[in-house]
């Protein structure tokens, strides 16, 4: 067997430690020396009481903390600019992102803006970032986007359009996986972010262009771990083993899709977030069934492999095994309690044309999809999900 050429990248250091966030200050001092830390999070997380102890840990270690807690979901560009302004005025030397994908994405872009003079509007797209960034540490509190180990940040421009900044500089210096931080994540959010992670693994495994032996192994490790623990983590939120498996699985899926990027499910999910503020994971969950069936025309052999990896194959033809995989994912989403149709989350039927017109512009991800897609086919997929 021969291999196609490939390149694999990830972050410099990953630490997994239950309640490790209470010792984060010592780690930062050991890694970067004493400096002023810009801690980026959202106000909802501050209210849960998760942020205070982390801030205390930093202060105990002798670090100055500048708190930016104005991140909002699907973070708009203005939030990034406000964050950078605060960090610059305070003379921040380290950037710490603490929260879900929204806070981590803001932290990633802010670290770059604080380390270089390049205007943000020039950074959108692939490999358009010049220069370096400030030291960057990421601590996820959802499991999740995998943003802690990806080279992508998704920012909302002009109120509705989700745009990606994709650049090597976005790989963090240090990632802490502390699943104790995810214990309070409400069941529906646990389900939505968990499905997001599973979609990352599925789309990385079926990616048309950059799928490679390492992204495959990561996706194949992540999927069974996530599939076996998602409903458990929703039903028994305090289950440490389930929470740790979800956080680790989401990170592995993140490493997979950082190197073999996502496809049509994400391309069609972005406008649902942009126009209707449907949470990212839920947007993916709503589109997953129709897109899996659409892609199965060409991707059935790969879906059959995923069925085997997840232990849900009953044998039979590739098409039957692919169907077993798709049915498993649909049942999992039913059991997770998530809304199952676009009409249930405030999307209106007359918006389908607008959604498809936006989705077709996300060629950055659509090029990776195993099956090419037209705008008319997207309208049909949105109708199926409606
Ligand atoms: N950069 C990437 O690689 C990547 C990948 C996928 C998604 N994303 C982006 O990530 C964003 C979505 O991130 P998300 O789904 O993690 O949610 P989020 O960051 O938008 O957070 C949603 C809500 O969950 C709350 N929350 C977070 N952790 C909590 C906890 N432990 N306990 C209680 N509440 C908690 C937050 O306060 C917030 O109100 C989207 O903007 C999406 O586009 C980025
Ligand atoms: Fe995602």
TrEMBL record:
Catalytic activity: a primary alcohol + NAD(+) = an aldehyde + NADH + H(+); a secondary alcohol + NAD(+) = a ketone + NADH + H(+)
Domain of life of the organism encoding this protein: Bacteria
Signal peptide: none
Annotated Fe-containing alcohol dehydrogenase-like C-terminal domain residues: 190-386
Keyword terms of this UniProt record: NAD, Oxidoreductase
Molecular-function annotations in GO: alcohol dehydrogenase (NAD+) activity; metal ion binding
Start and end residues of each Alcohol dehydrogenase iron-type/glycerol dehydrogenase GldA domain: 22-178
Cofactor section: Fe cation
PROSITE patterns referenced in this protein's UniProt entry, alphabetically: ADH_IRON_1
Keyword hit for Metal-binding: no
InterPro entries found in the cross-reference section: ADH_Fe/GldA (IPR001670), ADH_Fe_C (IPR056798), ADH_Fe_CS (IPR018211), Alcohol_dehydrogenase_Fe (IPR039697)
Family statement: Belongs to the iron-containing alcohol dehydrogenase family.
Identification of the protein by name: Alcohol dehydrogenase 2
């Amino acid at each position: 067997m021969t291999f196609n050429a490939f390149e694999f990248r990830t972050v410099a250091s990953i630490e997994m430690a239950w309640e490790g966030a209470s010792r984060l200050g010592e780690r930062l001092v050991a890694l970067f020396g004493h400096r002023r830390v810009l801690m980026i999070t959202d106000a909802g997380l501050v209210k849960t009481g998760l942020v205070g102890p982390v801030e205390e840990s930093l202060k105990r270690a002798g670090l100055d903390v500048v708190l930016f807690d104005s991140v909002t979901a699907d973070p708009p560009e203005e939030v990034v600019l406000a964050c950078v302004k605060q960090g610059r005025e305070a003379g921040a030397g380290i950037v710490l992102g603490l929260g879900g994908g929204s806070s981590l994405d803001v932290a990633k872009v802010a670290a770059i803006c604080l380390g270089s003079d390049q205007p943000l509007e020039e950074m959108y797209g692939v490999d358009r970032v010049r220069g370096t960034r400030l030291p960057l540490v990421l601590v996820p509190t959802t499991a999740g986007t995998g943003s802690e180990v990806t080279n992508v940040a998704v920012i909302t421009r002009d109120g509705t359009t989700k745009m990606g900044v994709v650049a090597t500089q976005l790989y963090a210096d240090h990632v802490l996986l502390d699943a104790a931080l995810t214990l309070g994540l409400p069941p529906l959010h646990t389900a939505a972010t968990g499905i997001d992670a599973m979609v990352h693994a599925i789309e990385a495994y079926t990616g048309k262009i950059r799928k490679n032996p390492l992204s495959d192994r990561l996706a194949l490790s992540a999927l069974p771990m996530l599939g076996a623990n998602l409903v458990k983590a929703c039903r028994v939120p305090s289950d440490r083993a389930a929470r740790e498996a979800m956080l680790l699985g989401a990170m592995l899926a993140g490493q997979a899709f950082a190197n073999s990027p996502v496809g049509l499910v994400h391309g069609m999910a972005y406008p649902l977030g942009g126009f209707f503020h449907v949470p990212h994971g839920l947007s993916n969950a709503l589109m997953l069934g129709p897109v899996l069936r659409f892609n199965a025309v060409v991707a059935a052999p790969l879906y059959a492999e995923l069925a085997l990896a997840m232990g849900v194959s009953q044998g039979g033809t590739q098409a039957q095994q692919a169907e077993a995989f798709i049915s498993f994912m649909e049942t999992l989403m039913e059991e997770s309690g998530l809304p199952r149709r676009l009409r249930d989350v405030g999307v209106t039927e007359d918006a389908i044309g607008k959604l498809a017109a936006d989705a077709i512009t996300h060629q950055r991800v659509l090029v990776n999809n195993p099956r090419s897609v037209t705008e008319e086919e997207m309208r049909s997929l949105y109708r199926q999900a409606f």
